Amino acid sequence: MEHIRTPKVENVCLVDRISSKKAALGTLYLTATHVIFVENAADTRKETWILHSQISTIEKQATTATGSPLLIRCKNFQLLQLIIPQERDCHDVYISLIRLARPVKYEELYCFSFNPKLDKEEREQGWMLIDLGEEYKRMGLPNNYWQLSDVNRDYRVCDSYPTELYVPKSATAHIIVGSSKFRSRRRFPALSYYYKDNHASICRSSQPLSGFSARCLEDEQMLQAIRKANPGSDFIYVVDTRPKLNAMANRAAGKGYENEDNYSNIKFQFIGIENIHVMRSSLQKMLEVCELKSPSMSDFLWGLENSGWLRHIKAIMDAGIFIAKAVSEEGASVLVHCSDGWDRTAQACSVAGLLLDPHYRTLRGFMVLIEKDWISFGHKFNHRYGNLDGDPKEISPVIDQFIECVWQLMEQFPCAFEFNERFLIHIQHHIYSCQFGNFLCNSQKERQELKIQERTYSLWAHLWKNRADYMNPLFRADHSQTPGTLCLPSTPFNFMYKFWNGMYNRFEKGLQPRQSVTDYLMAVKEETQQLEEELEALEERLEKMQKIQLNHTKVKSKQSEPSKHSGFSTSDNSTANTPQDYSGNMKSFPSRSPSQGDEDSALILTQDNLKSSDPDLSANSDQESGVEDLSCRSPSGGECAPSEDSGKDRDSDEAVFLTA
Amino acid sequence: MEFAELIKTPRVDNVVLHRPFYPAVEGTLCLTGHHLILSSRQDNTEELWLLHSNIDAIDKRFVGPLGTIIIKCKDFRIIQLDIPGMEECLNIASSIEALSTLDSITLMYPFFYRPMFEVIEDGWHSFLPEQEFELYSSATSEWRLSYVNKEFAVCPSYPPIVIVPKYIDDEALRKVAMFRHGGRFPVLSYYHKKNGMVIMRSGQPLTGTNGRRCKEDEKLINATLRPGKRGYIIDTRSLNVAQQARAKGGGFEQEAHYPQWRRIHKSIERYHILQESLIKLVEACNDQTHNMDRWLGRLEASNWLTHIKEILTTACLAAQCIDREGASILIHGTEGTDSTLQVTSLAQIILEPRSRTIRGFEALIEREWLQAGHPFQQRCAQSAYCNSKQKWESPVFLLFLDCVWQILRQFPCSFEFNENFLIMLFEHAYASQFGTFLGNNESERCKLKLQQKTMSLWSWVNRPSELRKFTNPLFEANNLVIWPSVAPQSLQLWEGIFLRWNRSSKYLDEAYEEMVNIIEYNKELQAKVNVLRRQLAELETEDGTQESP
């Protein structure tokens, strides 16, 4: 609290990013965990809550006659523009937020104060929901070829690895330790995924310290052990996910990549995924495109192309596809690495896992996948997502890219995933929110030292509890897209990869489809379930009645009450019913600066209260989706046809269009 | 002329057909007057029936005695035929070339097509102007039907019956027609029942360089405004282009002479600019070698989505004037047969729930495209693979359908029809067994006696068995005005049209099926529950009468 210079500023203006007409006046509050903006408008009192940990940058712009503008960019792609009447207040808010957005100790993070009112037992159960031990058992391990190794007990060999790791049975502790000494940060080859069907496996490691000519017998033996653990194939692939040039440059620093001559029966393959710095700047460029005010089609497409973002997504997908095909089609094991083996390697392994194993495409399986390939294997969440104040050069949207790969796959295989887009968006949100302990720190070891499980709650339990919101209505366990490997075309088309509007413009509700097919179908399915229950109950009652009737044997026919037809009313709401600015910068049609037309369209996340378990259920509590009233419909409802102009803010748009 | 003269080799055996995502098929190739047919002798393999009129361009090449013909269709499909024998191949190629570019409309397939289905409702009479007018006449008496163009004498591209302001007589209309491009005097396009505002359309006024005026024109346009009301004239050309038009005798309305009206210029491209855009887009979609960046670059360079954005924006602006400003509008470009119709019809999609139903959309196409004189014959003569640079070939109608798709994507539950319906219309506009899209206007269609000699597309589409394929399972009547987003982030490439033949749609089709299943199952249960409820209610009443005598 000592960092808050001013807890409350009145008469602050929240500017709508798209429509300058739509500014809202209100009060700004700074709390220990959130920035809160409460609108003055008596009827709505709309609240906008921003977690400090979501704040990416704060920009103070030149003071104008109306006040001092403050621009807050968030890691979940929300953009907040405030105008604070007094320069002094603005400065105080700015200085406070600078400090609040960059905590220096873990204890300052929200998860240590967040209390969802669960008792100790519930919290512990929450942490047990995802169990990697169970996951390896599911894969069919241990078996004749693979065993659980305790070589990393107490993190003795590698401090960024978990303590429990699967390694080939023939890899002795001596080999493992020897190999670890030949690998960056001692991240020796360990099992990421075992493909039961043909014994092929995906292993992961960091780069070898080969320099120009160094060799390591134990490392060579380690790779051999991996190959021997797969009797079906006489070679293994070694996939270096870096561009060849980067890998070669590393040799000068005594690192590098495997020399095919030194390792028996390996096939070496580069897949050019760029490094974290390229990715950071690529995202930056893409977000700049998203921030453009009324861009032309060319501005947008050109900017998107120029950012290179989709090219990078494709590179990651290509890596995953290569690995998945090697495993499923060639039956060959694959060792994947990049430099340290915690960014690109995690991306490639998890995409491959997703393609190979339908389990990872289920809600629970997806949590397992992240837990396994990202959390347990020491992806540096703290550094990459800037949870604590640190080196800005360490920040990079590595897992964001993985999450986008999943979305791109969902677009291609709409029935193959048990979860929906909202699930991905909420996971992305919580990677940055620090509301749950799962993604804290840089490694398992750090988390253990911090006693995360005793002091914070698990996101997985929270998501699982609310799983009804995250279901893909098109998923069916017995559907043809469900089992087996997802087969992408051998030459993946470039147009397969699309801009993810739902993620990067998620707070610009005006840019989103106005009706959600997913929500609609989910409501239908829910109703179907109720109907099934009712049907059963009715049949039972009818049977009873008929038995009684038989006794009476009296027949009378009477007019029955007309049955009500229940239809789904997808009532369009204010967004749908409000025009945007279509006049552009027409000279002969003055009047409006580029505007969206709808008050709520830059919908900033509204939250009911601090204790609400999910601060970002923008989609759930969404009044904008066009089908918002579906969830509360009873099966016999259906008479609430939307009336013309039911939109609540209709009048607000009158006369906006023409002032002249 | 006999087709036989054009068919030198009617039949070749051992021809191999290659299509993307399908195994090659070997079979016998047959040419008829209107079709290219390939059938394998296996029972379960699909036959290929291709209308010659669907063929946009062909390439041929030879490797030894084996000839290959690559056929590029107007629906963007590309197929390859391997034909043994150089002579056969050459004969086939030249026949296809001749048969796919027949000059005479009366030789086209619709004049030979005999339907195999029973006609339930004759589509030629499904959407009569009188009936359409009845929808308005209950709400307003300010408009009337005029038969001034009965003999197509006043305006050759207008239908015989048009809707005009009640107090403007036919004599005045004749005078106004002289002042408007192509005789296209202002007529009613849409009446907004909610507030009585209207959309009118016309050709450009022939003001010329010396600022010619027409009293009747001014009177007509002003007569459409209620006292104290204002209107907007939306010119679909930029001010610059409109000014240049004066040199050729065209021009635009001077605000001084139409004091209650304000003019807005938007810039919607026409003619070969659109055609080139389509050619570039389809080229980019067919090229699978480029990397991710070049794909976006080429998508951008085609400008297709820029055109989409421009058209949609103008339509939204028009709708906004009507619904939000309570102002009537007049829309025209030069002729008033292209961009004008895109705008008037899309504005109706936005404003009028009826036009989002299947029948309403058909009526819209009938009214705003066919009757309104969009020259389909010219515009759709060639498609994305054509080499001829004819000014009149232009994918104006396809752009309209694409815009509808964009709105449909943003409001997936507000349309009674689905994407397949739009794709079907695209196909039939370019090549069809039906007469609906033949000719450039009603006058030509009359002369061709299409109603007597050909079948209407609507006769086929509106049969329940066909309608099922085109019905959107998610549809829930939505009485609201729907405002789409025209931001670049919200507009997408219409994959169903442009990537249709370049990617497998298997998984997307499965998803669609699943969606249908979910909804059908729900409806089924609903019906069952209703039956049981009724039965139960009956029993209960009987019980009641029994127990309480």
Automatic annotation (TrEMBL), chain B:
Q: Which InterPro entries match?
A: Myotubularin, Myotubularin-like_Pase_dom, PH-GRAM_MTMR6-9, PH-like_dom_sf, Prot-tyrosine_phosphatase-like
Question: Cellular component terms, GO, for this chain's entry?
Answer: cytosol; endoplasmic reticulum; perinuclear region of cytoplasm; ruffle membrane
Which lineage ranks, top first, belong to the organism behind this chain?
Eukaryota, Metazoa, Chordata, Craniata, Vertebrata
Q: Which protein is depicted?
A: Myotubularin-related protein 9
List the coiled-coil residues.
Answer: 508-542
Its family remark reads:
Belongs to the protein-tyrosine phosphatase family. Non-receptor class myotubularin subfamily.
Task: Give the source species.
Answer: Callorhinus ursinus
Cite the Myotubularin phosphatase domain residue spans from the record: 123-498
Subcellular location per the Swiss-Prot or TrEMBL entry: Cell projection, Ruffle membrane; Cytoplasm, Perinuclear region; Endoplasmic reticulum
User: Gene name?
Assistant: MTMR9
Q: At the top level of its lineage, which domain of life is listed?
A: Eukaryota
GO biological process annotations for this chain's record? negative regulation of autophagy; phosphatidylinositol dephosphorylation
Q: How does it sit in the membrane?
A: Peripheral membrane protein
Q: Which UniProt keywords apply?
A: Acetylation, Cell membrane, Cell projection, Coiled coil, Cytoplasm, Endoplasmic reticulum, Membrane
Q: Which GO terms of the molecular function aspect are on file? A: protein phosphatase binding
